[in-house]
What we know:
The protein is mainly alpha-helical. 58% of the residues lie in helices and 0% in strands. It has one domain: Helix Hairpins (Orthogonal Bundle).
Amino acid sequence: MKILNIFLVMLFCLILDTDDASPIGAGQSDNLWQQFKSDYKRNYQDQNEEQRRYDIFRQNVNLIEKHNQEYAQGKTSFTMGINDMADWTKEEFQARNRFGNRKT
């Protein structure tokens, strides 16, 4: 099961790395958030949902920034960027892609 979880995290990271992904810069989360919502036409049900999605987005941006720093240090072989799934949790990603429902 641990191997499956590692695989899913790696797959999620690879999916975040798309050709049309935006570059990430530290301290730009508000601007990135506004751009993300515009690019992917995000409209949330209410302020609470938007705040929840922003928090998820920020966590994913932090993951992307950390990974890209590791790339710059030669520790990984690919970069990551923001795409249409940047406001999804890992669990939402798994559920929408049915990876969490497979038995091994």
